[in-house]
């Protein structure tokens, strides 16, 4: 049925919610601008002065004209000692009509060297490519490991090369376009790829550069002899193609993709129908204070095709909305929190719904706004743990693709049951209004305070109230800061923070990517505890 809205876009409540969301979005833009700035004016000018293109300019030239680019984790490394963006750009873009995973080093940020966050962001890109069968195109120009933090990258970083060859083994093509430095471990990026293009007089691909060779063996050799494009194309055979310049490398890269004969293995979408309800209004739905509940049907109606949503068990477990829809022509099952708390009925309803989606090979979309499973004597005695376990079992063992959007709260085991990061959704995006933690800041500070008070009293001491108040204030501020989207996105706990009004487009791109792989439901689950 077609969803109807109870939202009043002329009312004060809508205006207030929208104003709060727009303020958060302005903040988000400022954070994204940091990633866009790369290494800053000085390094950008130097790079351009050398006649080279920036990573984003390379991506633009590579992609089909006017094709969308779904950038992933632009806020990686936020809140760390490293620049926002983690010196690499990753995302899904269309090349010659084929959706590809693009991984581009940003040479303006510390020579494009890989720090611990760069490595994690690259791993995530490889995982997405593997799960969704997306060809990978590496745009390489990197100083290799960030040497001061080598202890955190050297050993785990080996996975980058392992991932490339495993993608190849799974029949997922890998391509390296080398624009500059690709030394030491970095040399295995072209080394492990199916197709390699190097730019003349620019690419430098060697295990050891001239100084290292001199130190190791006493041999005198220059960059070109050790790892130039000309040498690799004519002598070593590591380069399959030598490009005369960067634009030529992109042209060759595109022609390689054209010849891949890459096909999607999932079913094609049906006709697309735009929502009847206005997606612009998504900015005015989530209250600034997450303690106030909101109806997720107001969100669903603005992201699904024709605003049509057939609810499953609408009268049962009403704090979780479940139902069927289409999004950009793809069938989806939706699970969305309504009143915040998940009770036993909601958990059982979710477990049944997930099984039905797996029977029908239908991808699932999880929309979070939950404070977790209900606690208290009555609920424990009624078996809230085993009911939550049913839902978590179903989510963990479901095999259809999952997409997750954290709209508001995502606390406690509710984060797990609703397919948070640890449950491996194919993609997870966050709205600027989201908050995620083991519990709310006040509750967490309160629990710490009660535990400390009991421990002091058990020792026969007197609890210091002033110190308690200061401790609570400090802990609340810390947990609040750690619950916010930038902090979590910085740690790669999502694939990006998005404008709620872009949700339909982002999910449409994700669903298209997801259908690169076969879409099939699970045959079995763990033992359901009854
Ligand atoms: N680790 C940490 N910082 C690095 C780095 C690395 N691997 N490579 C470069 N940087 C830093 C530089 O110290 C410099 O910092 P500064 O501007 O604050 O002084 C900045 O990044 C830019 O480097 P610069 O050498 O000026 O840039 P370039 O474009 O002229 O040269 C490289 C880039 C990558 C060719 C060059 O920096 C280099 O050879 N780096 C070492 C490569 C290497 O041997 N890596 C080991 C791989 S395991």
UniProtKB/TrEMBL annotation:
Annotated ranges, domain CoA carboxyltransferase C-terminal: 271-521
Gene3D superfamilies documented for this protein: 2-enoyl-CoA Hydratase, Chain A, domain 1
InterPro entries: AcCoA_carboxyl_beta, ClpP/crotonase-like_dom_sf, COA_CT_C, COA_CT_N, MCCB/AccD1-like
SUPFAM superfamilies (alphabetical): ClpP/crotonase
Residue span, CoA carboxyltransferase N-terminal domain: 21-272
Any Pfam family hit: Carboxyl_trans
Protein name listed in UniProt: Acyl-CoA carboxylase subunit beta
Species per Swiss-Prot/TrEMBL record: Actinomadura parmotrematis
Lineage, uppermost ranks: Bacteria, Bacillati, Actinomycetota, Actinomycetes, Streptosporangiales
